[in-house]
Specification:
Layout (H helix, E strand, L loop, with lengths): L1 E4 L6 H13 L4 E3 L6 H10 L18 E5 L11 H4 L5 E6 L11 E4 L5 H11 L6 H15 L9 H12 L4 H7 L6 H12 L4 E3 L2 E9 L7 H12 L3 E7 L5 E7 L6 H7 L3 E2 L3 E6 L5 H14 L7 H4 L7 E2 L4 H11 L3 E6 L2 E7 L33 H11 L3 E6 L2 E7 H8 L6
Helix pairs in contact: 1-4, 1-5, 4-5, 4-6, 5-6, 5-7, 8-9, 11-14, 14-15
């Protein structure tokens, strides 16, 4: 069985890419996440008899031997597909247009930076001379137009324009398009925009004019992205961010930018979400402080000027480690001698855990100090790859409330990066 799926909060580009994959791979079953953008939901409510779409809970994942992923490259943005991540003998095909590589390792990859993901797939449809129905062409054009702002966003490429022209040749209906691409904007949205404008403030960050607004939202509100877009236009800033919190302690962050060098998608990816250079979002499900999120966004914007800096440039090495059979009292002495708060633990040449001063709180009896460190070390070690960015390191430290990250390559620890290393980077204190 082969299935094709896409990211949560499915937009038209994601839906179009999903349906296009069923044309390119006959027999592939389209599986959409539970959460759909309101306009997509409205489109499908009318066209539900045309597209035979399934929900994740209707699929027996044990029967899936081929997974086609479109318009996303991160496992955590898929809906109920976690079981497939560890499945053996699963063929994965990836179609994605985002500039930053994710963690989905595919057997076949069709990845190229474009304004819209469907543009990549339309090029292949043309190459294979697939015949499109007017409804398919209309949906695909909706994907192109939505992700490129009707070919007006800075991320738009000539390929996107070619795809739009071809889809019009295939009888895409612009009248239908205008109906479903018109965003919902009602009293709730007006009220939130009014609240944002009454507390609006601009700031200059790294040469960009930026406005960040924190709003508490009551109940479910659609089309918050439209509100942020309008807010940015009214404020006349390079970038605007809305931090929306609910009484359930959930937090949604939405960003919009017109500055080509200020990549909102990159910033949102550092917060656990995703997007494009001009637009992106992230959902933070755990209880978070909006002020902390605002500070992190500002630091990430500051960090854009060092986008080429990798963790390997900041990490300390060689790394002081201890074997897993080291006695706890020896570790305590080493921590005092080295003046550090924690140390990685190795076993068979690979990282097995980490021991910190707070772990010594578990030691209730003096006799336990003779126990091996493996008995008290933390097993859930958060690590980072050497090619990751300092912004990603900062995100992990904030998320897990830790002060250091072992840098791991091929299972071996090659360095360590601390909170002070990340802050040195963010506050532009790197040596020349």
């Amino acid at each position: 069985m082969q299935i094709v799926t896409t990211h949560k909060n499915t937009d038209f580009d994601a839906l179009a890419s999903t349906i296009a994959a069923t044309v390119l791979y006959p027999g592939a079953v389209p599986v959409l996440p539970k959460n759909l953008n309101p306009n997509v939901k409205a489109f499908l409510s009318i066209h539900k008899d045309v597209f035979d779409i399934y929900a994740p809970n209707q699929i027996d994942l044990d029967q899936v031997d081929r997974l086609i992923v479109v318009d996303v490259n991160q496992w955590n943005r898929l809906d109920q597909m976690k079981a497939l991540k560890e499945k053996d003998e699963l063929e994965i095909i990836l179609w994605d247009h985002h500039p930053i590589k994710g963690d989905i390792q595919a057997d076949q990859q069709f990845c190229e930076e474009m304004g819209a993901n469907i543009t990549l797939m339309v090029r292949e449809l043309r190459k294979e001379k697939k015949v499109l129905t007017p409804i398919q062409a209309t949906l695909f054009l909706a994907g192109v137009y939505e992700d490129t702002g009707s070919l007006r966003f800075p991320s738009t490429t000539s390929e996107d324009a070619y795809a739009a022209g071809y889809l019009l040749e295939c009888k895409a209906d612009l009248n239908i398009l205008s109906s479903f691409l018109r965003p919902a904007y009602g009293e709730k949205q007006k009220g939130i925009l009014f609240d944002m404008l009454t507390s609006a403030a601009k700031t200059d960050v790294n040469g960009y004019s930026v406005s960040i607004n924190k709003v508490n939202v009551k109940g479910h509100v659609d089309s918050l992205s439209v509100v942020v877009q309008m807010y940015r236009e009214i404020m006349d800033v390079d970038a605007a961010f809305g931090i929306f919190t609910t009484k359930e302690h959930k937090c949604m962050v939405i960003g919009r930018s017109t500055a080509e060098s200020l990549n909102v998608g990159t910033i949102m990816r550092s917060l656990g979400g995703g997007g494009h250079p001009g637009a992106g979002s992230a959902m933070l499900k755990k209880c978070v402080n909006p002020e902390t999120v605002e500070k992190m966004i500002l630091e990430l914007i500051e960090g854009n000027q060092h986008s080429s800096v990798q963790i390997s440039d900041l990490m300390s090495f060689p790394v002081f480690t201890v074997p897993s059979d080291t006695r706890m009292k020896e570790v305590a002495f080493l921590l005092r001698e080295k003046g550090c708060t924690g140390v990685p633990v190795e076993e068979a040449g690979k990282i097995a855990g980490i021991i910190s001063r707070r772990d010594f709180q578990k030691v209730r009896k003096n006799s336990a100090l003779n126990a091996p460190v493996r008995a008290f070390m933390s097993l859930n070690v958060v690590t980072i790859d050497p090619w990751k960015s300092p912004a990603e390191a900062a995100r992990l430290m904030v998320k897990h409330d830790i002060g250091r990250l072992p840098v791991v390559e091929d299972g071996h620890i090659i360095g360590i990066v601390t909170r002070s290393d990340a802050m040195t980077y963010f506050y532009d204190l790197l040596p020349d």
